[in-house]
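In the previous lecture we treated proteins in isolation. Real proteins rarely work alone, and many bind small molecules. This record shows how such a complex is specified: first the sequence, then the SMILES for coenzyme A.
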Amino acid sequence: MDFIGLPTNYDCDDYENSSIGWNPSEKLKELSEAGARYLIARQVHTINNNVIIGNPIGFVMFQFTFEETMADDDSKIETIYCYEIQLTEEARNKGLGTFLMNTMERIGRYFGMKKSMLTAFKENTAALNFYCNHLGYEIDEISPSRCVDPEYIDDYDYEILSKRYEYRLGS
Ligand SMILES: CC(C)(COP(=O)(O)OP(=O)(O)OC[C@H]1O[C@@H](n2cnc3c(N)ncnc32)[C@H](O)[C@@H]1OP(=O)(O)O)[C@@H](O)C(=O)NCCC(=O)NCCS
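The predicted 3D structure, ligand included, written as tokens:
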């Protein structure tokens, strides 16, 4: 797990400011779960025509799950769930986040998942912009803002976002 930089280099502002709070050992446990799958981006240098693989500069962690829906029969849906995406500050705003998310979605489509999903804190407007305006994610039907009584909506500081897949890759 060293590549993630826990607990010192991890971007945990979102959690610190949230109702959940920041708990590095809980986060490490989540990121180490048996079902966790990673795409890791590393720096590459070329020295005298030799390609040198350097330090990690970002990762996306996801799991294959079945997620709840609002269907009357309580059916669940095959989902690729993005638990975390983090890039080092120097690696941001260069298209790497888009590349990692697109690659994760391609994996989901290939393995017959019906949608991809993630949770984002409402305060992280940069991430919400990235997911919704750039990658085409929408507020999911099970997100608090769509299914909780408006009177209690302020108790929830996150949104659940998702993107439905219209086709399976390779079929
Ligand atoms: C959010 C994150 C994964 C985005 O990855 P990225 O590589 O920086 O994003 P990209 O370069 O692929 O940007 C794609 C688009 O996202 C949007 N975007 C990305 N970062 C943004 C920011 N800080 N503010 C506003 N918009 C942003 C832009 O619209 C950009 O589109 P453009 O090409 O028209 O400018 C990355 O910035 C990051 O690791 N942030 C810190 C950790 C984090 O917040 N993770 C998400 C937790 S839910």
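Summary for your notes: The CA atoms of residues 10 and 63 lie 20 Å apart. The helical segments are 13-16, 24-31, 96-110, 125-134, 144-147.
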